[in-house]
């Protein structure tokens, strides 16, 4: 048995949810460029869960279900008030809150297809309320209940700030949600599938996936990009900062990818939005610094930016706290996790690979009193 480091190139399952072929990303056969330009996030959720686009009526029904399920049980809200809230990372709070939600869902352990679908709806619907309520409570503000007349994207921004968002902000946020929704067998989706392949429940699958997304080599990179931009501070500092990091063999966050070679097709959409929004907010330096970093990293290492690089300046321009960037990734990606969880249940087999053992050979047990 020989191990492949990081399972690179290993095909671990079949899936009809999304594909990456020759650097082209599709959700159920629809090109991400097409979806990013035209689709609402709600349509994408339907597409991933049903593996076809909805009719007008089906879309209206899904929107209604997401809307009526959007509020959190009061026990979850009360729980936030028990945390050492200013010391807790919002990704840790989100991971805990999703697990907690499972305790208050009467169907948590009902492993029947329709019950699993209903849980998917309830969980997707509540993700914005978890992230925005936590963000407000830690600032001493009251959570804002969702509105039934707003889209998923608009509602998130409204519940975060309490103000009705501008159309440009809704458009940008909807696009970001569409772009982050699914991505074949990325680390967090694989985690979710491994978890539920033991026939564990939907909440356990999503809780595990949030844990995997949190790391800076995966979803956590978007927050790390903003930290880097803030540390660099000015356009003049970019060159020295980036070249020094590369010379020390340190990673530049938001660059590189396990699967894409020529580039991540999502990055160009976020780059365009970052340019537009940073100009609108009067902070074009974030975009100028980002493009300068991109030029150096692609020139020196031939590593193109990934989805996390320009999403950082997009979210910053929308006035969002930097440590909420990865939770926002989860608000979108939960749609993909749930699609994969439902797909795993459809045709389940335990996921259990082997390890190539590299420890010592057979040893004889020696009683503790006789050890030297
Ligand atoms: C949504 C997402 O999850 S997208 C990815 C988000 N993560 C990041 O942006 C973090 C920065 N990027 C990385 O760490 C990596 O590119 C990953 C984790 C995304 C992919 O990693 P892998 O396929 O395992 O590549 P690995 O980490 O082995 O790197 C291969 C080589 O490229 C280099 N490299 C890869 N990414 C970077 C980077 N961002 N900056 C500098 N060098 C890099 C490595 O140092 C290594 O060089 P070496 O061969 O000289 O040692
Ligand atoms: O696919 C991956 O390895 C990481 C990624 O880009 C994503 O999850 O969106």
TrEMBL record:
InterPro entries linked: 2-MeCitrate/Citrate_synth_II, Citrate_synth-like_lrg_a-sub, Citrate_synth-like_sm_a-sub, Citrate_synthase, Citrate_synthase_AS, Citrate_synthase_bac-typ, Citrate_synthase_sf
Presence of the UniProt keyword Acyltransferase in the record: yes
Catalytic activity: oxaloacetate + acetyl-CoA + H2O = citrate + CoA + H(+)
Keywords carried by this UniProt record: Acyltransferase, Transferase, Tricarboxylic acid cycle
Pfam families: Citrate_synt
Pathway terms, separated by semicolons: Carbohydrate metabolism; tricarboxylic acid cycle
GO MF annotation list: citrate synthase activity
Superkingdom of the source species: Bacteria
UniProt family annotation: Belongs to the citrate synthase family.
PANTHER family (UniProt xref): CITRATE SYNTHASE, CITRATE SYNTHASE, PEROXISOMAL
Name of the protein this chain belongs to: Citrate synthase
Species this chain originates from: Robertmurraya beringensis
């Amino acid at each position: 048995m020989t191990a492949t480091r990081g399972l690179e190139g290993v095909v671990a399952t079949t899936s009809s949810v999304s594909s990456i072929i020759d650097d082209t990303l599709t959700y159920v056969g629809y090109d991400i460029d097409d979806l990013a330009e035209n689709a609402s996030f709600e349509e994408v959720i339907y597409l991933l869960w049903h593996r076809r686009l909805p009719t007008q009526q089906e879309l209206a029904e899904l929107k209604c279900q997401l809307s009526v399920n959007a509020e959190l049980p009061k026990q979850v809200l009360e729980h936030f008030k028990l945390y050492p809230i200013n010391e807790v990372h919002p990704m840790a709070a989100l991971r805990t809150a999703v697990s907690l939600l499972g305790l208050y869902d009467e169907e948590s352990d009902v492993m029947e297809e329709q019950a699993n679908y209903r849980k998917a709806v309830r969980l997707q619907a509540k993700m914005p309320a978890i992230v925005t309520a936590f963000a407000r409570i830690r600032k001493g503000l009251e959570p804002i209940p969702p509105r039934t007349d707003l889209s998923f994207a608009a509602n998130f921004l409204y519940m975060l700030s309490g103000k009705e968002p501008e159309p440009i902000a809704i458009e940008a946020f909807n696009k970001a949600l569409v772009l982050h929704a699914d991505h074949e067998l990325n680390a967090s989706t694989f985690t979710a599938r491994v978890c539920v392949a033991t026939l564990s429940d939907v909440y356990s699958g999503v809780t595990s996936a949030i844990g995997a997304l949190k790391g800076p080599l995966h979803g956590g990179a978007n927050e790390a990009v903003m930290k880097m931009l803030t540390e660099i501070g000015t356009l003049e500092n970019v060159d020295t900062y980036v070249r020094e990091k590369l010379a020390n063999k340190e990673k530049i966050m938001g660059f590189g990818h396990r699967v894409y070679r020529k580039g991540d097709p999502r990055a160009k959409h976020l780059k365009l939005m970052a340019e537009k929004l940073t100009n609108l907010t009067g902070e074009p330096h974030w975009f100028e610094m980002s493009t300068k970093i991109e030029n150096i990293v692609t020139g020196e290492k031939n590593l193109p930016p990934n989805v996390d690089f320009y999403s950082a300046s997009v979210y910053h321009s929308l006035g969002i706290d930097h440590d909420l960037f990865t939770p926002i990734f989860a608000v979108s990606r939960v749609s993909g996790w749930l699609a994969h969880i439902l797909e795993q249940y459809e045709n389940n087999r335990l996921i259990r690979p082997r390890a190539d053992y590299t420890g010592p050979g057979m040893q004889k047990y020696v009683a503790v009193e006789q050890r030297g």
